[in-house]
Inverse folding.
């Protein structure tokens, strides 16, 4: 299982993913508060299995 945290900002957001042991599974991703940034976030999430 993975857990996601998202830090919301006015111009940029940052997302991090940890496993069930609390260990980061990837570097955090910083993305713009734009439509293109949202697409970048969706591509980032495709790396993880979703049930």
């Amino acid at each position: 299982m993975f857990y996601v945290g998202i830090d919301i900002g006015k111009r940029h957001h940052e997302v991090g993913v940890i496993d069930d042991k609390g260990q980061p599974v990837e570097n955090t991703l910083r993305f713009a508060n734009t439509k293109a940034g949202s697409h970048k976030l969706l591509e980032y999430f495709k790396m993880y299995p979703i049930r």
Summary: Residues 2-45 form one domain. The chain has one helix and three strands. The two ends are 10 Å apart (CA to CA). The chain has a mean pLDDT of 92.
